[in-house]
């Protein structure tokens, strides 16, 4: 009976030992499966980033194409307007008008110089300065200020 009990206990220990080994193996398998799942999830996550960036890129390309189309339409309208304006303009007439303006402007400048010279010569006659000084002295004498005396005391 002792031997049987010993054999039973030994068998019991062996079974428990096998069970612990199986539990370790089960944990390893679970970890392996979870690690594989984790790697798969991370790859899927990276793919979503790639997809999002591609979608953004397509959106930006669409906006650029739309802007280019608007620019082309605007340029077409501007070209039509410029063609119409060029038809209405007379370049020779404008050049002629500018030439006439320049000629008349030169004449006016010459006339202005002559008038200035004439006025300057009339206003700067020799007797005017002496008369102005006499008037100033008379006014100062009337109010009682003597210029020459004041000037000597200052010097």
From TrEMBL:
A GO BP entry: vacuolar transport
Residue ranges that the Swiss-Prot or TrEMBL entry lists as coiled coil: 1-28
The keyword Protease is annotated on this UniProt entry: no
Record key words, sorted: Coiled coil
InterPro entries cross-referenced by the UniProt entry: Snf7_fam
Pfam families the UniProt entry points to: Snf7 (PF03357)
Keyword 4Fe-4S among UniProt keywords: no
The family this protein is said to belong to: Belongs to the SNF7 family.
Protein name: Charged multivesicular body protein 2b like protein
Species per Swiss-Prot/TrEMBL record: Argiope bruennichi (Wasp spider)
């Amino acid at each position: 009976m002792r031997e049987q009990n010993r054999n039973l206990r030994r068998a019991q220990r062996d079974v428990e030992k096998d069970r612990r080994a199986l539990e370790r193996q089960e944990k390893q398998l679970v970890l392996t499966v979870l690690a594989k799942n984790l790697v798969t999830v991370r790859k899927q996550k990276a793919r979503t980033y790639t997809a999002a960036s591609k979608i953004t890129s397509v959106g930006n390309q669409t906006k650029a194409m739309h802007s280019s189309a608007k620019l082309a339409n605007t340029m077409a309208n501007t070209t039509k307007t410029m063609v119409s304006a060029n038809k209405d303009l007379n370049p020779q007439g404008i050049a002629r008008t500018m030439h006439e303006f320049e000629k008349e402007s030169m004449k006016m400048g010459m006339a202005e110089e002559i008038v200035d010279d004439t006025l300057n010569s009339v206003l700067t006659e020799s007797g005017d300065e002496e008369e102005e000084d006499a008037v100033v002295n008379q006014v100062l004498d009337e109010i009682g200020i003597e210029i020459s005396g004041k000037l000597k005391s200052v010097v």
